[in-house]
Amino acid sequence: MTTTTQAYLGVDLGSTTAKAVVIDESGTILAASTVAMGAVSRAGMRRAVDEALSAAGLSAADLAGTVSTGYGRRLVPGAQRSFTEITCHARGTSAMVPGCRLVIDIGGQDSKAITVDDHGMVQEFAMNDRCASGTGRFYEVLAQAIEVPLEEVGELALQGSNDLEISTMCATFAETEIVSLLARDAPIADIAASVHRAIASRTLALVAQVGRHTPVVLTGGVARNPAAVEFLARALDTGVLVPEHPQITGAYGAALLARDAGRRGRQVMDDVAGADDLFPRPPETHSCGSCDGTSSTGAVALGLPVRLGG
Amino acid sequence: MSSGSAALEALRAAARDPRSYIRAWRSTHPGQKVLGVLPMNFPRELAHAAGVLPVIVPDDQEPVTEGRAFLPEFYCGYTRNLADQAATGRLSDYDALFVADHCIQLLGATDVARELDPARPVFLGQLISSLNEPWAVRKTAEMMSELRSEVERLAGVTIEDTALAASIRAFNRDRALLREVFDARRSGDSAFSPVELQDIVAAAQVMDPDEHRELLAAVLRDREATARDERIRVHLSGHLCHAPRRELLEVIEEAGAVVVDDDLWTGRRYLQASVPEAIPPMEAIAQWYADRNVAMPCPTRVQHDVDWDEWLLDSVHRSGAEAVIHLMPKFCEPHMLYYPELRRALDTAGVPQLLVETEHEGIPLETFRTRLEALVERAHRNRPAYA
Fold first, then answer.
1. Rounded CA gap, A91 and A10, in Å?
2. B229 touches chain A (CB under 8 A)
3. Complex ipTM > 0.85
4. Domain B3-163, CATH
5. B371 inside 8 A of chain A by CB
6. CATH assignment of B228-386?
7. For A203-231, how does the pLDDT look when each residue is reduced to its tens digit (9 = 90+)?
8. In sequence order, which residues have a C-beta less than 8 Å from that of residue B48 and are 6 or more positions away?
9. CB-CB contact of A7 with A63 (8 Å)
């Protein structure tokens, strides 16, 4: 495929996955890729970029700008500059779900709560700073301990009762608790449900640092887990929106940042302010999936409310 | 190596290895005592006037090992480090330990030191913290007098007022020169990195004031002013009684920020107030104690007409800081108590801010870097060029 319009690349090199998104001048996603890695990996990142470019029918030479983000953001060759995941997730998610006010991103090794203001700019943010509790790693620990494929633990958890005691403080100790529950013959569905409830509580504590705002959007690989969304919605006592491709919001935001700099006629590398000069802007459409940008799409039914600190 | 570089290296060595400095000082001052002083308000001039080397015992940034047995994790890193120094013999270079403050965690660390080495004199004084009380002046004077007597007992000498006045002048001269450096930074000079400045101030807390001032003067003669670049200007706030880890300061400037001012213990907090020289020296020391909280408010003091948040906003205004980074040691109760007011005041003023809870060990630098960069990205949008 060839394109007559400018194309921009965003690369999100996270702790466990590499994501690449190619967009055109209008912000429409031309192609996207997600590559699972064992850890931050140049090879994984190159594969993600190659796959995205190939799917878009482009080569690196065709790109008008590239922005990188994620833990490995400094490893991305050809990136004119990098932005933090916080800025990129806010940018990408605001574009995918116009009007969103709270972005919760749960990645492989960290989780973030980001509030965005009326113009979609980062207002406040909080990150877990040293604990895997509440991150994708926590779900991996669960999947390994109960010997269920990671992609199936969500459906399993939705079938269980969530009244088992699980530590929310440490992924390692939680594994010990899970093993202890297995030894007491607790149903794995109940264990899975209880772990999901515990993680949602942990996320709620993160959200409390920036304040509850709605609409809420969950991004990151964990957003594909229906039980994670369900329990988080219960914890927040509100619906939680999920874009169809929640893993690529950071890369999409990075690509948009590259595009935005181009729109202003600046080289990306000279666009020191980056995300800061993006707004106000009209709501943008995107074409990556079924999310139509309204606050009802992807909403999860409310469950029992959990109050802050409760 | 130039004379300025050599002087800076000497300051850095004293800051990072005070025990070697103490041993060197003892070799040239045979028979004289070394007093370990715990922050924040002990007037070192009293010890200096008695021929004693007063060293503010620093966090030596070593891992907490045997000291873990004596203080639990909810004590701050500094006090747990002090307990570890006591438990592993690293306080043996001090002939006595004096504290003039009432931080419960600091008192706990002092008690550990006293318990583990009963032979070393330990004096627990408490300067009044409620500074608006009608009796505050009298109580301060009484405690200063008691501190003087205890120092005299330790040194075995009588402190003469003339000697005390001379010591006051020596410390004032050193603080004044330090203030010049900090004022220059606030005005746009970035000749010194945050780590260099921290070493310079930390050295002042260890060294003889005249020796420190001479070395600092040599450094300044050799160091030309450097215009600040376009990075985001930040004010560092917190760490009231010990130094933040150096790697944190390095990451701050690597992340696209430049430190323009601070209220850190190993920064302006140490040097902001001088002791009056025009009044009798004991009165002057008591006045200095009262003045310190006005010059730079401390959350461990109660003074109704002084607010840290107002001071911080004024400071941010003076320096042109575009963001504030709160460096809060876990678990510094005074800082925790005041933080909501600081946050509210800065929010109201539209100043971006970032709270960083620091620990003695195990700081997740990469996460810290990401959060800092996000602060920088956010602060950029306040610049007129991007309005």
1. 12
2. no
3. no
4. 3.40.50.11890
5. yes
6. 3.40.50.11900
7. 998 999 899 999 999 999 899 999 999 99
8. B54, B167, B170, B171, B208, B209
9. yes
